[in-house]
Fold this protein.
Amino acid sequence: MAVKKKTAAKRKPVARKRMGGIASYVRSVFNSPGVKKVASTIKGLEAKLKAAKKKKAAAVKIARKKIK
């Protein structure tokens, strides 16, 4: 007598959770090219500001030495 093998249950693909409504809209806005361009511009300006602050601090330090 042949033993009948039980077929393995096929796994159904798990559906990914989708963000609905406002969350998907916000994500689409954040990923838009305009927002990315503005973000990179802001990062560049922040870097310039940081450099300017360092220069100013150095200038103040030199000026204080001259006063003494």
Remarks:
- The chain is about 65% helix and 0% strand.
- Helices lie at 22-30, 33-67.
- The chain has a mean pLDDT of 86.
